[in-house]
Amino acid sequence: MRKQIAAANWKMNLTLAEAHELIDLLLQQPLSIEAHQQVLIATPFPYLIPIQQKLANSQIKCCAQNIASTQNGAFTGETSAEIVNSLHINYAIIGHSERRELFHEDHSVLALKVNQALAHSVHPVFCCGEPLAIREAGTQNSYVETQLTESLFHLDAEQMKQCIVAYEPIWAIGTGKTASSEQAQEMHAHIRAVIAAKFGSEVAETVSILYGGSVKASNAIELFAKPDVDGGLVGGASLNAVEFAAIINALK
Ligand code: PGA
Predict the structure, then answer these.
(1) Between 140-152 and 107-119, two packed helices, what is the crossing angle to 10 degrees?
(2) Is there a contact between 116 and 81 (Cβ–Cβ < 8 Å)?
(3) Under 8 Å CB-to-CB from 218, ≥6 apart: which residues?
(4) 109: closest CA among 79, 156, 68?
(5) What are the pLDDT digits (tens) for 142-154?
């Protein structure tokens, strides 16, 4: 069975003291994390080391929220995949819709970020997903396909297997409006078919495809029960230890 993954995306939230408190509370919850399951927490960069240390005796791993598109050099304020890897962090979110929209990250920059991640043993958690206008026009499948082809399809099959895809319809992020489990399944099956057409079905069956967009304890079981939904990328609800623990325990 491919990995079932619950990934927390803290975004730009929590002081360090609050982050410690949240992890303490999370570790007090009854968590069942099996060998085919993975829990990730994408913290702000400065917290990667302290939170990773705190998680050392758990099965939970830290994840970066972004990485640079270049290897190193005069790029003030950026953090490279090489730096992230040197902290023993092996996951990074790439292409979150907030990065695409607010920081103007386009397909080609994201392709470079994916290359940097893979060159430094960092698994990309590659985000895709359509805005509301595209969903209303009914063209979401080709929109998401373009996001995948433009930023991932230069990879070889072995590299593609290192990637995790997160489908996050923009109209569902932070809005409390979740895609229905049927809408999620339909898109996840499409994404898997697109990956299969390019890389073959063995690769497509290996890649975990997470759903993101207002995942909560109350909808996680139904979403994760769908055959092509391999877990979730969770924003708001991951800031609550009890909610996030329930989401972890909803993994297949
Ligand atoms: P949300 O965010 O769970 O708060 O909708 C998800 C995300 O942006 O990754």
Answers:
(1) 50
(2) yes
(3) none
(4) 68
(5) 999 999 999 999 9
In tens, the pLDDT along 145-192 reads 999 999 999 999 999 999 999 999 999 887 877 889 999 999 999 999
Angle, helices 181-199 vs 217-224, to 10°: value is 50
Fill in the amino acid letter for 169. Answer: P
Q: Collapsing DSSP states into helix, strand and coil, what is residue 76?
A: coil
Q: Which two tokens stand for residue 124?
A: 């990309």
Q: Provide the 8-state DSSP code for 64.
A: B
Select 4-249's CATH number: 3.40.640.10, 3.60.15.10, 3.20.20.70, 3.40.50.300.
3.20.20.70
Domain ranges for the chain, please list them.
4-249
- The total of other beta-carbon atoms located within 10 Å of residue 158's CB is 10
In the structure encoding, which two tokens stand for residue 69, read together?
């598109």
pLDDT in tens, 85-118: 999 999 999 999 999 999 999 999 999 999 999 9
Tell me whether residue 107 is one of the annotated catalytic residues.
no
- Joined together, the tokens standing for residue 214 give 């207002």
- Closest Cα to atom 2 of ligand 1: 235
Does residue 232's CB lie within 6 angstroms of at least one atom of ligand 1? no
168 assigned to active site: yes
Do the beta carbons of residue 238 and residue 65 sit within 8 Å? Answer: no
40 backbone dihedrals φ, ψ, rounded to 5°: -125, 145
Ligand 1 binding pocket includes 236 (Cβ within 6 Å): yes
Region label for 107, one of left (φ > 0), alpha (ψ between -120 and 50) or beta (otherwise): alpha
